[in-house]
Design a protein that fits this description.
about 325 residues; hpI Integrase, Chain A; globular; 3-stranded antiparallel β-sheet
Length: about 325
Amino acid sequence: MAARDPVLTEYAGLLRDLGRSRSSLDNFDHAARRFQRWLDAEKLTAAEVGPRDIMRYFNGGGRWDKYAAATKRLDYTMVKAAYRYAEDPDDGPPLVERTPFRRRVEPPKVELPKPKSPDVEALRKMKREASRLSWRHQLLFMLFVFTGMRSDEVARLTWEDIDLDEGIMEFKGAKTGKYRRVPLHPELRDLLSRCPTRDTKLRRRSVDMLSDKPAKVVMAEIGKRTGPVLWTSRGGHAYTAHSLRCVLVPAFAVDGWTSRMLGRRAVETTLARNGVDSTVRDELLGHAHRTMGAKHYQTVSDDDLKDAVSRMYQVETGGEGL
């Protein structure tokens, strides 16, 4: 493997020192590999690269054809950040005199797909399929569509986070680190009250050993539910977020719906259509910034647009029109 340019290695070290997430480190590593291969092919060092070279790299022929559309823009952001740090590092002399990312170097334009979320009929169809499969599929579906939880949050959810008596669940957001306090929907609350727990077998063994007491008494003495809410049938281990997204969700998510579309987009969209204030929606879904949901998760359909046009000036004219 060819040696990596100091501009790239220094920034990778900075990301590690700052404790960035594994996904951030991997994203930069992939971007650095692609950029380093281009440097080697052009027989350049990062310090010798100018604005024209950067434009040539990001607009060069079929180099990006095999990658997703957003990968090109992500690479632009990563390489630009590496150059900015090389121009003014925390300690030591600068590695480049001036960054090649200047005003006339524009970021690649990416046509992002229009976000979408399933309608009520699709959700009902998936609910029936999840109920047919197992309680695990059904509970995962309910957690997605009634709380807007992320896969990482569902994987880490334990019974200690849930208060069935109060009808509240409180847990730490996986992405923002913000604690979310979410009231339980009646359907979700009823399902949680009937779900088996991982420690059921352990408690039954204790009942067998203490045969001098009634089973119900011993079960009450052992205590309330503990451990992960979703656990595997083999070994009783908690599911990983990857397993939830790639194993359980595809089993009931018909028509190619993903966990992100099922959960946060569906919740954000239905709350907006039912007139819930944006501040309440952002708090309920644990967004880091206000209007995050409307910008990234809410789906606006053609029917929504037609309805908005039909309601123009209704209040001002009493519904009679101009």
